[in-house]
Write a structure and sequence with these properties.
With 423 residues, the chain is of the alpha/beta class. The chain contains 13 helices and 14 strands. It comes from Streptomyces toyocaensis.
Length: 423
């Protein structure tokens, strides 16, 4: 259901140098270069802690992540905030510069996001055999690898994104879908191996790319990595088993209605959701790829005369889903995207317009999955159980003050002891 995202080989983009960490130099040869104007306008703050390099210096511990809000438990009778999560599969910076663009969009609209990095985007083509994908030959990847300049640019965006409070998750490595070794057929051991390799490519990108003088990523990826979305939304069952054993906290590889999340196999189930699809009688998954498939099929550049309409359909569908939750049950809205210019970039335009429309509204928090999981963990389990009794778009009949006044939560519909289960 999700699509691949390929880093263009041979892309040449001016690297950015940020003096926020010990050592500066993220060009393809590890030497310093001037920052882009857009980064100068909104510089990321330098960590105040002493940098402690990890391994070969590709990553570093720099203290607590900046700009993370402290989660607070709802008070009795308090209306929950409306959470919206914008997330990106296979996050990398290529010639389209969509990673840097949406970082800017987020900053300008009081938002943070989750970027799911594909580990092979930090592995140069000439080192491809270092990747040994489960059930495939060494050096195989359905989304290719990268070059040194692309690695430098991607690392720069990852660094700045994290310093701005965004989350760096994983979209794993080779993005294998379907039959013949696709992730849907992977065992728990296969998933653990794939996750270990994704971590290793992040922890060793400087060695693999020959950029020993470059600045490190400012986080310990073993601690940073707490969630993921599987390629094509396949293989969720065994992935979740592996993820739970590895200490992950959430998964967003499923499909759900707009209701409050619960834990599944010990992980927060933060699945993408079904929202209205303008002009159609069925609802649509909150992902750009799925809108595209239901508009132009597998053709990524369909009829240009319909591009504007298709983008408007995605924008309006997401906004209708937002309003349904915002005025109803306040269930978090989960949105997934790719840094792609499918159908003339109309879906990127749609996402940007949704960010600008919703993230500045009262009681709305546009956050990363990490921040949402932190908030959920801080709540009284009885309060969350009560929230989960609300259906799609259903507001409390007597208002929020009465609904969350502190009384016991009703049994979920269909559960033992509830009216629906009797008889």
């Amino acid at each position: 259901m999700a699509a691949t995202h390929r880093i263009a080989a041979g892309t040449v983009i001016a690297a950015v140098c940020v003096a926020s960490l010990a050592g500066c130099g993220t060009g393809p040869d590890g030497t310093g270069e001037h920052a882009r104007n857009q980064e100068k306008a909104h510089p990321a703050p330098a960590p105040k802690n002493v940098v402690r390099l990890i391994g070969d210096g590709s990553t570093a511990y720099t203290g607590a992540q900046p700009h993370l809000p402290r989660p607070e438990r709802l008070k009795p009778g308090e209306k929950p905030p409306q959470f919206v999560v914008f997330s990106w599969d296979g996050a990398g910076e290529d010639s389209q510069r969509l990673f840097s663009h949406f970082r800017k969009v987020a900053r300008e609209n009081n938002a943070t996001m989750t970027y799911f990095l594909s580990g092979v985007y930090l592995l140069p083509e000439e080192k491809r055999d270092l990747y040994r994908p489960p059930q495939h030959s060494p050096g195989r990847s359905d989304i290719g690898f990268n070059d040194r300049q692309g690695i430098a640019d991607t690392v720069e965006q990852l660094r700045l994104a994290w310093l701005e409070g965004n989350e760096i998750g994983t979209h794993f490595n080779g993005h294998f879908c379907g039959s013949a070794g696709g992730v849907g057929a992977w065992s728990v051991a296969d998933w653990k191996d794939e996750i270990a390799q994704a971590k290793r490519f992040v922890r060793t990108w400087k060695t693999n790319a020959g950029m020993k003088n470059a600045a490190p990523l400012p986080f310990d990826y073993d601690k940073e990595l707490i969630g993921a979305r599987t390629p094509c939304l396949e293989g969720q069952k065994n992935f979740m088993r592996a993820a739970r054993e590895l200490g992950f906290r959430y998964d967003t590889s499923g499909v759900n209605n707009q209701v409050w999340p619960k834990k599944k196999q010990g992980l927060w189930d933060l699945s993408m959701q079904l929202v209205p699809f303008p002009g159609h009688r069925f609802e649509q998954l909150t992902m750009d790829y799925n809108f595209m498939v239901n508009q132009s099929g597998t053709t990524t550049q369909g009829d240009p005369a319909k591009h504007a309409l298709w983008g408007d359909q995605m924008r309006d569908g997401l906004l209708q889903g937002f309003e349904r939750a915002y005025r109803g049950n306040r269930a978090p809205l989960i949105i997934g995207n790719h840094f792609e210019s499918w159908n003339g970039g109309t879906y990127m335009r749609a996402v940007e317009e949704v960010v600008e429309t919703v993230c500045n509204k009262p009681d709305v928090r546009c956050v990363s999955f990490r921040q949402l999981a932190d908030w959920l963990d801080a709540q009284d389990p009885a309060t969350l159980a009560k929230l989960r009794t609300l259906g799609v778009g259903e507001a409390p009949k007597k208002g929020w003050a009465s609904f969350l006044s502190g009384g016991p939560a009703p049994a979920p519909k269909g559960a033992p002891g509830s009216p629906a289960a009797k008889g």
